[in-house]
Design a protein that fits this description.
Elements: H1 11-15, H2 21-40, H3 45-52, H4 56-84, H5 86-105, H6 110-138, H7 141-172, H8 181-184, H9 186-200, H10 214-237, H11 241-266, H12 281-311, H13 316-321, H14 324-344, H15 347-369, H16 378-400, H17 408-441, H18 443-465
Helix pairs in contact: 2-6, 2-7, 2-9, 4-5, 4-6, 4-10, 4-17, 5-6, 5-9, 6-7, 6-17, 7-14, 7-16, 10-11, 10-17, 12-16, 12-17, 12-18, 14-16, 15-16, 15-18, 17-18
């Protein structure tokens, strides 16, 4: 069983208790860049395909390679931060993210870009868990709650801004870089995060370092790869036999992972994913909400990017600007989120699920009746953005509210893995569904089908949110 947190925090937590405003801004910058990069490439894919002569399967790998390595290595990144120091891993991760972004920006061909994106995802997996773990371990009380709320807002805004900014950068063709600028933009900001972290982010780590759970890491990696690779590549490759073989292997690999982790924890060792954390109601129920929320969010952003450029044949700038109402809605909801949570607690998530469902339904109705133009899309995407902000902002705060400081890295890694895996799952499932249906049904009806599934996800978030504790620490 989990022991109750001690009144006196461990020395490592005390040494980091004074995380300054500048330190918080620094780690949030570190969180913003990998989240931004997950989606900024979406609007650049058509240009990348043209310049590098890349077919659909390779383009999906360019988009998916980042998400796959990001997701499979996140828990390991959190564990390493617990053991060797979260500030140190933040520095390594930010520096590696700058380097791999440079590699992507200078890639001479499509396959080198695929490799660069996979390496970039691995760097992000080192970086992101340290952000959440540092916030969790180095702050407490009201400051910790507010910092987690801001983290949730930053992650969601990065996704929406990525779509808008990506289109602008491709169209601007800065210094003749074209699509390469969406990667090169990361380099100075990642290096800035390194310099700021050296000055403003204190070191902290778990009180007792634990070894790496190699069997658990191998099984988790194999399981996620067996799910994501065929889902993301199967349609483009015509669903070869190996895709079905990998999908068939997934439940066996997932079951083996669970059994190994339970056995490791019962033996007194520390597994990659301690299932005892799921005894915390906030963690267990919050992760249940994270799955449909982030899957729907990831699928929506991918489908909208494809629809705007291929279905409506809009240029990258116009396609990006069409999502500005969503960004504004998300931003306004995020700003009011901490105050609303203080007054209404977790019921803010319930209201957000309702507003999101109304926005998605409005957008589907617009697509089926009036047609889609950037102007006609405003009510639907704005309401969806408001709803998403009301869900995403408090979600991180809820999930990590009761995690002991000594387990901050593990808890943060589990949450971040759920987030990134769900985003990738949404792209793989809803994106593949849209691309399959659009040629026969047309883009408007295909979008309506996808949005109907997302409304179902909003309903799941609503029902699960009612089981959360009303008050949020």
């Amino acid at each position: 069983m989990l022991t109750r947190p001690r009144l006196a925090p461990p020395r490592s937590a005390r040494s980091a208790a004074g995380l300054s405003t500048a330190g918080l801004a620094t780690v949030l910058l570190g969180a913003f860049l990998p989240s931004l990069d997950f989606f900024i490439v979406n609007v650049a894919l058509p240009t990348i395909g043209h310049d590098l002569a890349a077919g659909p399967a390779v383009l999906e790998l360019i988009a998916a390679g980042y998400g796959i390595t990001f997701a499979v290595l996140l828990v390991l990144g959190g564990r390493l931060g617990d053991a060797v120091g979260r500030r140190r891993l933040f520095l390594y991760g930010a520096a590696a993210f700058a380097l791999t972004s440079l590699v992507c920006g200078l890639a001479p061909n499509a396959w080198s870009l695929v490799a660069g994106r996979a390496a970039q995802g691995a760097a992000a997996a080192l970086l992101i868990p340290q952000v959440l773990a540092t916030i969790t371990a180095a702050t407490d009380g009201h400051r910790r709650a507010r910092a987690l709320s801001v983290y949730g807002a930053v992650g969601g805004l990065a996704v929406v801004i990525g779509q808008v900014l990506g289109g602008m950068l491709v169209a601007a063709d800065l210094f003749g870089t074209g699509w390469r600028s969406v990667f090169l933009l990361n380099v100075p900001f990642a290096l800035l995060a390194v310099l700021l972290a050296l000055r403003h982010v204190p070191e902290n780590r778990a009180e007792r370092a634990t070894g790496v759970d190699l069997p658990g890491t191998a099984l988790l990696t194999a399981g996620l790869l067996s799910l994501f690779v065929p889902l993301m590549e199967g349609r483009a490759l015509g669903w070869p036999v190996w895709c079905w073989a990998l999908l068939a292997a997934f439940p066996f690999l997932a079951s083996a992972f669970v059994l190994v982790e339970l056995r490791t924890e019962r033996a007194g060792a520390v597994p990659l994913l301690p299932f005892s954390l799921l005894r915390l109601p906030e963690m267990r129920r919050g992760l249940g909400i994270a799955l449909p929320y982030f899957a729907g969010f990831g699928g929506f952003m991918f489908v909208i990017a494809v629809l705007l450029q291929q279905g409506l044949e809009l240029g990258p700038v116009t396609a990006g600007l069409a999502l500005v109402p969503m960004a504004v809605g998300y931003f306004c909801a995020s700003l009011s989120g901490p105050r609303l949570i203080g007054r209404f607690g977790s019921r803010v998530i319930t209201v957000g699920a309702v507003v999101q469902a109304v926005g998605l339904t409005t957008l589907a109705g617009t697509a089926l009746t009036a047609g889609l133009t950037p102007v006609l899309m405003i009510p639907g995407v704005a309401l969806a953005g408001i709803g998403q902000g009301l869900i995403g902002t408090p979600l991180f705060r809820v999930v990590l509210s009761r995690v002991p400081a000594a387990r901050a890295g593990v808890g943060s890694g589990v949450l971040a893995t759920t987030q990134q895996s769900s985003l990738a799952l949404g792209v793989a499932t809803l994106g593949t569904l849209y691309l399959t249906l659009a040629p026969s049904l047309g883009y408007a009806r295909a979008l309506a089908v996808v949005l109907a599934l997302q409304v179902g996800g909003s309903a799941a978030v609503l029902l699960l949110s009612l089981r959360l504790p009303r008050s949020v620490a």
